[in-house]
Amino acid sequence: MKKQILIFTLILAAAMLASCATVPVWKDGVFETSEAVLRKDIKLIARLPNVPNGTKATITIIEQTTQKETPLSYQIESVVKGGKVKAVWNVKYDVGDEDVLGFGNSYEQPSYAFYVECDGEKSEMSKSVKLFTDFYMELSFQGRLLTDYPYVLKLADGSYRKGKTNKNGMIVEKKIPVGKVVRF
Questions:
Q1: CA gap 7, 35 in Å, rounded
Q2: Where are the beta strands (DSSP E) in the chain?
């Protein structure tokens, strides 16, 4: 009987210590993802099975980079509900980082990870989510829209995309690396 009580006590203590120790995940809609798009919402979710409803939690999002000593961080306050903490982050990126990241040959694609703190405990770090952006540019000449007009773009990571403008004279490229874009 003492052995059973001891085992139960150890399991209960381990569960309490692990109450905030699950690996949080990024979700795009309902699906887990490793990609985020600038200025769009992305969900941050962590399971907290032994934390009571209404417990306050802080979600800290950290820029992951090898180029800076002090990476950017963002915090979101949330509360536990149904054994989970959820928040929505409208993806941000400091464009001034372009100089630090050295777009071109030494391009480093921005990425972020997050962790959750509650009741004085800290979860594990989430997997990284890489940051992309959507690109829109209208092409016109002497006030006339250039429709079905060919273009070539050099992206921040050194890669190229080519295509033609749409019926509204727009270049539309989805999910490109964040940074300087040059049109040829």
A1: 42
A2: 25-28, 31-32, 35-37, 41-47, 56-64, 73-81, 84-90, 111-118, 121-122, 129-138, 140-141, 144-145, 150-154, 160-164, 170-177, 182-183
What is the model's pTM? Answer: 0.78
pLDDT digits (tens, 9 = 90+) for 119-143: 888 999 999 999 999 999 999 999 9
Rounded-to-integer distance, Cα 171 and Cα 18, Å: 49
- What's the CA gap between 138 and 146, in Å, rounded? 8
Nearest to 74 by CA among 101, 106, 42: 42
Q: Does domain 2-132 have CATH number 2.60.40.10?
A: yes
The alpha-carbon radius of gyration of the chain (Å, integer) is: 22
